[in-house]
């Protein structure tokens, strides 16, 4: 009798272990297809992924992700709003499955997460107080005037560019997220903020042009003999390479379709903002 009980216990433990092992081996792609739900991390920044007044999600990254995942048999996309600096840590910790937040592809980020092929390319813009009182039209102007303060957000890719340009830390004021940066500019705590052209236009439109404006013209910084262009990509965990490949295929199949063109037009993304197929993530990560 004792042997039969012992054998039953061992068998149950073995089968339980197999079940746990099987569950642990399930990939993110398998899970989201089984559940029909994928969670995206976003920083609530227009025009990428943001909450509307009614609580629903919108944005070019959100809608492209939704369309691509629908092609993968995942009909529902849920958003997890976090501060910008928490996007990569949150992804790595498993709080969500994908970053869909207009994330710049940088070699330092490539070392931490996997990126899909770039889906948008865009230049930087700077936003200043109305009338541009400190006459800022380039980063050279910033370097020439140590009193100029730049508002930036924690974890921003621009921090690396400032370092390369020789802009000292004493001229930087770091905030947790973009709304805080924008408020600091409007209140006069900082003299300029940097962002993509999309974000700068959104900020000026939201302000109604009352207190801030884009600094025009603006001379782009030059790195390695080329004007600085930012490439944006969806972020994934390093061990989700199969999901990255499938997502790339799905996004590629969307290009040129009426659905794809409608999403771009809705958020004022033009054909010139789409990277050439020759631009590859592997090359960007090496730069």
From TrEMBL:
Keyword Signal on this protein? yes
Q: What processes in GO biological process is this protein linked to?
A: ectoine transmembrane transport
> What's in the keyword line of the UniProt record?
Signal
Highest taxon of the lineage: Bacteria
Its recorded name reads Ectoine/hydroxyectoine ABC transporter substrate-binding protein EhuB
Give the organism, scientific name: Phyllobacterium sophorae
- Where in the numbering of this chain does the Solute-binding protein family 3/N-terminal domain appear? 37-271
Q: Which residues form the signal peptide?
A: 1-25
- Gene name per UniProt: ehuB
Query: A GO molecular function for this record?
Result: ectoine binding
Q: Does the keyword Signal apply?
A: yes
């Amino acid at each position: 009798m004792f042997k039969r009980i012992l054998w039953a216990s061992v068998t149950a433990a073995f089968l339980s272990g197999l079940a746990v092992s099987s569950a642990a081996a399930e990939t993110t792609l398998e899970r989201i297809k089984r559940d029909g739900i994928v969670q995206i991390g976003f920083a609530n920044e227009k025009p990428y992924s943001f909450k509307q007044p009614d609580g629903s999600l919108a944005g070019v990254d959100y809608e492209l992700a939704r369309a691509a995942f629908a092609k993968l048999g995942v009909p529902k996309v849920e958003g997890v709003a976090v501060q910008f600096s928490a996007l990569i840590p949150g992804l790595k910790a498993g709080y969500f499955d994908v970053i869909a937040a207009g994330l710049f592809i940088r070699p330092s980020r490539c070392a931490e997460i996997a990126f899909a092929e770039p889906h948008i390319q865009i230049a930087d813009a700077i936003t200043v107080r109305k009338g541009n009182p400190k006459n800022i039209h380039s980063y050279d102007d910033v370097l020439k005037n140590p009193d100029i303060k730049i508002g930036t957000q924690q974890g921003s890719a621009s921090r690396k560019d400032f370092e390369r340009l020789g802009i000292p830390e004493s001229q930087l004021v770091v905030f947790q997220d973009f709304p805080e940066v924008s408020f600091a500019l409007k209140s006069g705590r900082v003299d300029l903020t940097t962002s993509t052209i999309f974000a700068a236009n959104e900020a000026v439109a939201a302000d109604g042009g009352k207190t801030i404006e884009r600094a025009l013209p603006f001379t782009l910084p030059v790195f390695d003999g080329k004007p600085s262009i930012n490439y944006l990509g969806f972020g994934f965990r390093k061990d989700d390479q199969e999901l990255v490949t499938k997502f790339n295929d799905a996004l590629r199949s969307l290009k040129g379709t009426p659905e794809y063109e409608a999403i771009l037009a809705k958020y004022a993304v033009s054909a010139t903002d789409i990277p050439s197929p020759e631009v590859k993530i592997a090359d960007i990560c090496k730069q």
